[in-house]
């Protein structure tokens, strides 16, 4: 898992690209289950902002930021945008570690996955 810190006993950080891949995976799972609408709740302000606020401007600016630099994680963002052409996907930010049961469950699963990854790919 990208962004996992070296020692599993520390807090885990997730690379923004990994957050976007998780969103893309959730959308694909929902589509395969036959859903035509999905609400994605995430504690990643980056993911929500990418997909709700910044995306239209980036597309108009040929995938360049306001500073003129290439958009990071363009591949993942474009893939999510393309899937949204076929499914109504809405995004909602939820604060992390705030007692939201879905967010707490996702955090627990991510930590378990990080620990498993460290066993397979120790640093």
TrEMBL record:
Primary enzyme class: hydrolase
GO biological process: DNA replication, removal of RNA primer
Pfam short name (any one): RNase_H
GO molecular function, one term: metal ion binding
Keywords associated with the record: Endonuclease, Hydrolase, Metal-binding, Nuclease
PROSITE patterns attached to this UniProt entry: RNASE_H_1
E.C. number: 3.1.26.4
Catalytic activity entry: Endonucleolytic cleavage to 5'-phosphomonoester
Domain (RNase H type-1): residue spans on this chain: 1-115
Keyword Hydrolase part of the UniProt annotation: yes
Entries under Gene3D superfamilies matching the protein: Ribonuclease H-like superfamily/Ribonuclease H
InterPro entries reported for this sequence: RNase_H, RNaseH-like_sf, RNaseH_domain, RNaseH_sf
Record-stated family: Belongs to the RNase H family.
Protein's name in the database: ribonuclease H
Species assigned in the record: Notodromas monacha
């Amino acid at each position: 898992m990208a962004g996992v810190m070296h020692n599993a006993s520390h807090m885990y950080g997730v690379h923004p690209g990994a957050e976007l891949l998780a969103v893309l995976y959730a959308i694909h799972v929902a589509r395969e289950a036959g859903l035509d609408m999905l609400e994605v709740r995430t504690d990643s302000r980056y993911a929500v902002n990418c997909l709700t606020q910044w995306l239209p401007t980036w597309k108009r600016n040929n995938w360049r930021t306001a500073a003129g630099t290439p958009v990071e994680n363009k591949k993942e963002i474009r893939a999510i945008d393309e899937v949204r052409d076929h499914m109504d996907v809405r995004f909602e930010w939820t604060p992390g570690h705030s007692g939201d049961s879905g967010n707490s469950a996702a955090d627990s699963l991510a930590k378990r996955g990080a620990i498993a990854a460290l066993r397979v790919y120790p640093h």
